[in-house]
Amino acid sequence: MTQRIIKFTKMHGAGNDYIYVNTLIYNIPDPAAVSVRWSDRHKGIGSDGLVLIGAASSPEADYSMRIFNADGSEAMMCGNASRCIGKYLYEKGMTDKSVIRLETLSGIKTLKLYINDGKVERVTVDMLCPAFDVPAQYAPGCSDGNDGTLLADGRLFGGTFVSMGNPHFVTFVNDIATLDIARYGSILERHAAFPSRCNIEFAQPMADGTIRTRVWERGSGITMACGTGACATAVAAALTGRSGRSSRIAMDGGTLDITWQEADNHVMMAGPAEFVFEGEINLDN
Ligand SMILES: N[C@@H](CCC[C@H](N)C(=O)O)C(=O)O
């Protein structure tokens, strides 16, 4: 019988906050609906979504991750959650490995934990290769390859489509501090160019060498950071000559260090992972 009282852990990576449940102990029968209820910042726990940690189906992996956005949609990958899972598994004694293989819907990702005095201080994730498989309907108003220009509420946004296991449209702007990202992000997420909707990154290279990036996430709206979005931004910046193969992506909730390796084409993401609090909640809430 499914237990009704579920113990959960709230964690964040650069401010991108999720509710984590160990499904080796607790069964969540309808995670999409639970994510909508629990993510609510007024009537629920409050988060950008729900993350389920479970057994891996592949013998190559140690554990698995499933990620649901705040609107209940399931995503293929989450960069910030994968770092948090590394910390969760190690500090809760579920592994003593400092290299963990995590199964996701977009492949097995390798996490490397940097441990000091029993605490995981930083996690690096091998995010595998970026893909530029342009959505079928990306053609309207677009130029060549994965670059295009999209119209949203009277403003044109030139950008690059990058898949990091999930879809991203990275648009470079020159008014990042004042841009109304809720206005434009909500329209671009559901633009006809993106049949499966899209995560949107608004980015601007800054004088200090960082790339200031603000995010509108598919299924969750404005978030403080997006790991896959940071990777997509770094790749788009490198492709368009705005940066080299390594970038510091400065998001609202923290900075992620991204390197797009020349040797194997893999994108490496490094950043923090933090516990916020533990709690328990009735599955029916
Ligand atoms: N916050 C995430 C990505 C979460 C999923 C995304 N909203 C989608 O629908 O693809 C990250 O850190 O990568």
Automatic annotation (TrEMBL):
The active site is at C78, C226. The keyword Amino-acid biosynthesis applies. One of its GO terms (biological process) is lysine biosynthetic process via diaminopimelate. It comes from the Bacteria. One of its GO terms (cellular component) is cytosol. Its EC number is 5.1.1.7. The lineage of its organism: Bacteria, Pseudomonadati, Bacteroidota, Bacteroidia, Bacteroidales. This is Diaminopimelate epimerase. Substrate binds at N16, N69, G79, N80, N166, N199, E217, R218, G227, T228. It catalyses: (2S,6S)-2,6-diaminopimelate = meso-2,6-diaminopimelate. One of its GO terms (molecular function) is diaminopimelate epimerase activity. Pathway: Amino-acid biosynthesis; L-lysine biosynthesis via DAP pathway; DL-2,6-diaminopimelate from LL-2,6-diaminopimelate: step 1/1.
